[in-house]
Structures are given as structure tokens and as C-alpha cells.
């Protein structure tokens, strides 16, 4: 019997997306495209007499994590560590929920499959209203193109076969819940357009172009993000806005070339995984 | 314009499988379970005036690779490097075919998606008769459970959420083509039984138990493999036979514990990937 189990879940920046509601949260979600990042969330789940969740050492309540622990009937201590900020478009809540699912399953020997655990975390994130597509993208890794919404039993995911350096620069936060609660019809039309462009030309260049166009068409581009993207373009860089955060990311060195003190990471080829479950 | 592109594809040992023929090679294949291995095949594709394929520096003809290069209309030099032996149940031909597809797409900017490249390599391997499920398993990584046959547009894959040390000991070769050309009805019945057992209990322990039972029921267990597995069991280890090779693998240290000079690797969590396509 082990006392703790650890999982790693890559970060995920979304470039464009749709909203696809459904009564069943495991069938609801979004289509879209994004990048899985080597900067992610390491989640350790430990036996405990009472439930607790910390993010970088600070007590926190993340609804999606609570819902995962409810579904797994787990009284455990969840410790999440990440270099990524919350609320800035990196899928930290979804990653913590998925890591809690993988870690709890390993620790308490719940005997669930990978797709079942992804489905639980995806449904929890959708019900919490904090994300629609991060969890399934983080389960796949790489540069996922989510062609159908929902959990792994319902969706269909392809990917751009690419690797490389990624930089990001966080300006501020945006509330996913506030935007998803608003009128999302125009956003979904813009997301569908972006997806069909990138499916025709699955390269990181076309992904970034479609993402910039989506941010404009969906009315989500802030003045500060626009200004940073102009600086990146002036330095011959290639970037876009992370959905949903006031964050700019580039594939390649566009942000540092433009003089920004950006954080450097890379596309993470693999999906979420337990770190060791052999003992 | 780059002069070469490199891809990494994990090795894959199959524990149990079915054969699922179909007229369309991208829909044909197998269901089953296996382990993706950190010991894999690194494939470098280089511009060239004539087509060539080498494996560990030696000229070789691998039909699945030729078919991939035909499909991509590519005149390139393919250099594959691997610590794994050919013909011993590690999916080296499928891995080389998939690596050639990923590398050629990146080098020649063919603009295909990940699933399209996996479909091409899977269909090539099926047509060559050298494998039925390795390519799609290598594209996923981890401990894939192939619940439906065929390429990514048709199949459904789940996985056992596990990591850990793997050891393997190669006794000799088995011809995949010879066995697949024979009567596979009993083999498929045994494979279906194994899969349904592991779906109910998706752990590495149940996977290895189902794999041992499959080898016996499908009549593929050789005397030498049986003898090694008995030694592993006597040392409290947990192993099975790699399909299709005269090879024993263990999750954990069962082979070295039993005194064998085994090769040590581990479950590879990610799938096949280009190594760098950013330049």
C-alpha cells in the first residue's frame, strides 16, 4: 500500500474554440485548437483523514477538483505545484482536476481506465464552468485539434504534428466563467471558422494565424494583448492570445525577440500521466 | 528549408490481440493490449537523390516503410536507430514506418495531420502483413487498450493509467506474417477474452495475467518462453510473452530478480512525435 501517488498534467493554451453545450456534462464541451505545454501541474494525492487541496502550498478551493474527489468518493490531501498562474488561460483548474483523478485512482486503487478518469475530470470542469476543452487536450498532449466536443467516449481529436519552443507573457486575468455565461454564438461561429482553416493546413503557423483572427472576431482581444502582439509581429514573431486569459503566447522566440521578459517552455508531446504506479 | 527531420516512436510489446480483417487496410487491424516502451526507434529523414532505408547503419528493405514513402511521394534517405531487435515482438517495423511518415511530413512540408500520418503508417503495416495494431498503439503511448481495430478515424483506444519499469529478454524470432497467415479464429477468441478481462480491471497486473492466458490459449507459448516465465514467477515476478516474438517481458524487475541478463526500459507515457519541427 502506497501513501501517495503523483501525476503530471501539461498546461494547455487554447487558441480558438467553440462552445457546445449538452445536458450530459461528459458530452458537453468545445471544439478548438491549442498547445499542450511542458510547464504543467504536478499533483500529489496523499492519504488523509480530511479532504484538503493546496496550490503551491496555499489552501484553495477548486470546484472541479472537489467534484472529482466526490465522484471518486475520496478523502485525500491534494497538493498541486505549478509554475503557471491561475485564471490566465493555461488550464490550471482542469489540469489539477485531471491530476487529482489520476493520482487518486492510483493511490486508492479505484481500478478506473485512463478514459474513465479523463471523462470524470472533463465532466467536473464543465459542471464547474471553468473550462470546456482543456482536460481532453491535456490528456492528449502535443498540439491537439478537438474536432468534436465531449469526453473521450464521445469526442474525436486530431493533432498538428509539431514540436518546439513556446514563450508566454501574462498581462492579467480573464474570467472564463463570465465569458462562457455570456452570448457565445458569435464566438462559436469564429471558432468553427478557425478550426476548419487549421484542419485544411495543420501547421503551427496556420494555427497561430487562425487564433489571432479568432480573438478579433470573437471580440476577446484586449488593447494590451493587441499591443503585445503588434510588438511580436514587428520582431518577426508569431503569437496569439491564450483563451481565456490576458496572456500572449508565441511558438518560437517572438516574445523575447520583441524585448519581453517572457517565460520559456515548449510543446509537451505527451498527455497527462501518473508519474509512477509500479510500486 | 531544413535538410532533415527526426521523429521518435516508442517500441510496443503486445500482450494479447485479435485479428480484424477488412478490405480497407485503414479499417483493418486488431484489438488488444500492450505496453509502449521508452526503448523505441529514432527515425531521421533526409533529403536525397535516391531512396534508401537503413536500420542501425545497415541497408534494409522494410515493406511498410516503402509503402509510406510511396504514399507521401517521397525520395528521401531514412535512417532508423534502435536498441530493439527486429522480429522479436517490439513493433520495430511499424515504428520505423510511423517515424518515416512523421519525419517526411515535417521535412517535405506535406501538411498532413497526426491522425493522417498514423493512418498512412497503419495501412502500410497492415498491407505489408507485418503488424496489425503496433502503429496505433505507438501513436498513443502508455499502456493502450485497443478496443476497436483500424486507424485513428475508425478505432477507439482506452489505456491503463500506469507507469513503471519494464524488463525484456529476447530468446529468438517469430514470423508475424506466418502466424497472421494461418487460422486466427482461436487466437481472436482468446484475444477478445483477454481484452474483456482487462477492460473490467484496467491494471498492469490484470494485463499480464490476461496476456499469459492468451499465449496459452492461442497456442503461441513456446517451451523456452514457458520456462523463462516459470523462473520469473518463482522469483515473485510478473511477466508475459511479447506478441509476436520469442520474447519475455516483465513489469517490474521480475527478469533480473530471476537471474536473467535482461534489458531494462520503462513504460513510455507519450506517443510518437517529431523531435523538433520549429525551425
From TrEMBL, chains A, B:
Pathway note: Cofactor biosynthesis; coenzyme A biosynthesis
GO annotation terms (biological process): coenzyme A biosynthetic process
Keyword field: ATP-binding, Coenzyme A biosynthesis, Kinase, Nucleotide-binding, Transferase
Keyword check for Phosphoprotein: no
Domain GHMP kinase N-terminal positions: 64-142
EC number(s) given by UniProt: 2.7.1.169
Transmembrane portions of the chain: none
InterPro entries (UniProt xref): GHMP_kinase_N_dom, PoK, Ribosomal_Su5_D2-typ_SF, Ribsml_uS5_D2-typ_fold_subgr
Chemical reaction(s) catalysed: (R)-pantoate + ATP = (R)-4-phosphopantoate + ADP + H(+)
Keyword Transmembrane found: no
GO molecular function: ATP binding; kinase activity
Its job: Phosphorylates (R)-pantoate to form (R)-4-phosphopantoate in the CoA biosynthesis pathway.
Family that this chain belongs to: Belongs to the GHMP kinase family. PoK subfamily.
Cited PANTHER family: PANTOATE KINASE, PANTOATE KINASE-RELATED
Full protein name: Pantoate kinase
Source organism (scientific name): Halomicrobium mukohataei (strain ATCC 700874 / DSM 12286 / JCM 9738 / NCIMB 13541)
Amino acid at each position: 500500500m502506497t501513501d501517495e501517488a503523483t501525476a503530471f498534467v501539461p498546461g494547455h493554451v487554447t487558441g480558438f474554440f467553440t462552445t457546445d453545450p449538452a445536458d450530459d456534462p461528459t458530452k458537453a464541451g468545445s471544439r478548438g485548437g491549442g498547445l499542450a505545454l511542458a510547464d504543467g501541474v504536478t499533483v500529489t494525492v496523499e492519504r488523509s483523514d480530511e479532504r484538503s487541496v493546496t496550490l503551491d502550498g496555499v489552501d484553495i478551493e477548486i470546484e472541479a477538483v472537489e467534484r472529482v474527489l466526490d465522484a471518486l468518493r475520496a478523502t485525500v490531501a491534494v497538493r498541486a505545484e505549478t509554475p503557471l498562474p491561475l485564471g490566465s488561460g493555461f488550464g490550471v483548474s482542469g489540469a489539477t482536476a485531471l491530476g487529482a483523478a489520476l493520482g487518486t485512482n492510483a493511490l486508492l486503487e479505484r481500478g478506473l481506465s485512463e478514459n474513465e478518469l479523463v471523462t470524470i475530470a472533463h465532466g467536473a470542469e464543465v459542471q464547474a464552468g471553468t473550462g470546456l476543452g482543456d482536460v481532453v487536450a491535456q490528456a492528449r498532449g502535443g498540439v491537439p485539434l478537438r474536432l468534436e466536443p465531449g469526453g473521450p467516449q464521445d469526442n474525436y481529436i486530431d493533432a498538428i504534428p509539431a514540436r518546439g519552443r513556446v514563450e508566454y507573457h501574462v498581462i492579467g486575468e480573464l474570467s472564463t466563467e463570465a465569458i462562457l455565461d455570456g452570448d457565445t454564438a458569435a464566438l462559436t461561429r469564429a471558432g468553427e471558422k478557425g478550426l476548419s482553416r487549421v484542419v485544411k493546413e495543420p501547421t503551427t503557423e496556420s494555427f497561430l494565424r487562425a487564433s489571432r483572427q479568432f480573438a478579433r472576431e470573437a471580440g476577446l482581444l484586449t488593447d494590451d494583448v493587441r499591443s503585445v502582439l503588434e510588438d511580436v509581429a514587428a520582431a518577426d514573431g508569431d503569437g496569439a492570445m491564450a483563451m481565456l486569459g490576458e496572456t500572449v503566447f508565441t511558438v518560437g522566440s517572438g516574445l523575447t525577440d520583441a524585448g519581453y521578459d517572457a517565460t520559456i517552455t515548449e510543446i509537451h508531446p505527451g498527455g497527462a500521466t501518473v508519474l509512477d504506479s509500479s510500486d
